[in-house]
Amino acid sequence: MRIALLVDRFGKRFGGAEAYGVELARELSLRHDVTVITRTCDSDLAVAHLPIRVSRRLPSWIRVLYFAWRASQLARAGRFDIVHSHMNGWAGDVQVMHVTPVRYKRICAVPAWRRPGIWMNPRQLAYLLLERARVAPRPDKRIVAVSQLIVEQMAAAYGEVPLTTIVPGVRMAPAADAARRTDTRARLGFGPDHLVCLLVARNPMRKGLPTLLDALALLPPHYGLVVVGADEAARAAVMAHGHAADRVRLIEPTPDVTPYYEAADLYTHPTRNDSFGMTPLEAMAHRLPVIVSAARYCGFAGYLTHAQDALVLEDPRDVRQLADAITLLGVDAGLRRQLIAGGEAIARARSWERVAARFEAIYAEVLAARAARGG
C-alpha cells in the first residue's frame, strides 16, 4: 500500500505528537511504501520524504495555510492509496487529532463576548477553518483521537463527530545498563544516594516545571531533578529558584533520552495540558515509577489506576501534593515495586505493532468505502 504521512515536523526530538509520527511510520514501513510529507525532518528513518519549503519570515498562520495547500497538491488523487494526516487541512483520508481542538480552545472555552473578535482575527480564523475542513465528514474518511480527553473535547466543539480512539504506543526498553546508569549519574553530578527525578518535555514550563521546582525546594538535599528538553524559559525559571537550582540539571532537546531514563529513580509529569502524554508511558517502558497529573490535565491518566499503575495528582499546581508524592516514592520501596510492575504492564499492552495494526484496519475501511463510491 502507498501511504502518504503528512506531518509538520518529523523527528522524535520535536515532541510527543512528532514521535508518534516517527514510530508509526517506522512500523508501517515494514509492510508498506511510506512517504513522509513534511516541513522539517530530523530522523534517520529510511523512508521517502517530500519536503515543503516555506519561509520562516511569514506569519505562522500563513505558513500553516501554505503547508495545507501544498500538501494537498503533493498528495493529490491517484498518487497514494492512503493519505494519513497529522496536520490541520483538507488533505487526509485518515486524520489524527493530537492536541486540544482549536474550536474547543478558542470558541467553546471563552466567554461569548470575546468570540466575535476571534472570528475577525485572520490568524484565528485560518486555524478554525483549517480544522473545520479537517473534521468535515466524508464516507471514505476517518478521524482518530489519541485519547478519550480529545474525544470529549471534540464532542464539545463539533457535536457527534464519529471518532476512533487509538492511543500512542511505546517500545519496551531493554534492561537498564548499570554501568551507563552510574556513568550518566556521575556526569550529572549525582551519586548512588541521590534520588533523581526526571522530566522530559519539549516545553518544560507547560509540563509542570514551575511546580516541580517549588516541590524540589521542599525536599531534602539528596533529591535532584533532570529536565530533558530545556529551553530558555526553563533555564530562567531554574535560575530564579535560587538555592534549589544547584540540584537541577538541564539537558537540551535530544532524540536519545534512554540514558536519562536509566539514570533516573522516578518520573514526574505534573503537566497542566497534555492531550495524552507520551513521556510517562515511555518512562513506564523504562521501568520507572511515575507521578502524573489527573485525566483532565493529562489524557494518559484516564487509562491508569492511582497507586497501582502510577501516583495520580488531582491538582498539578499543588506543590505540597507533588512533594509528598515524590517523598512517598523515595521511602516506600513496596510502592515503587508496585508502580514499576503496574506501569510495565501498561506499556507492554501498548506496542507500536498493535497501533499500526489498528491503523491498517482503518485503511481497509477507507479503501472499501472508496470502492463503494466508485472511487
Provide structural commentary.
The protein has 2 domains: 2-169 and 351-372, Rossmann fold (3-Layer(aba) Sandwich); 178-348, Rossmann fold (3-Layer(aba) Sandwich). It has helices at residues 16-28, 60-74, 102-108, 115-119, 122-135, 148-158, 178-188, 209-216, 232-239, 258-263, 278-285, 319-331, 333-348, 352-372; strands at 2-10, 33-41, 48-51, 82-85, 94-97, 142-145, 164-165, 195-200, 223-228, 248-251, 266-269, 290-293, 311-313. The longest helix has 21 residues, at 352-372. It contains 14 helices and 13 strands. The two termini are 16 Å apart. It has 375 residues and is an alpha/beta fold. Helix 3 (102-108) crosses helix 6 (148-158), helix 8 packs across helix 12 and helix 11 (278-285) crosses helix 13. The model has no long low-confidence stretch (mean pLDDT 94). 42% of the residues lie in helices and 17% in strands. The protein has a 7-stranded parallel sheet, with helices on both faces. Strands 10-9-8-11-12-13 form a 6-stranded parallel sheet, with helices on both faces.
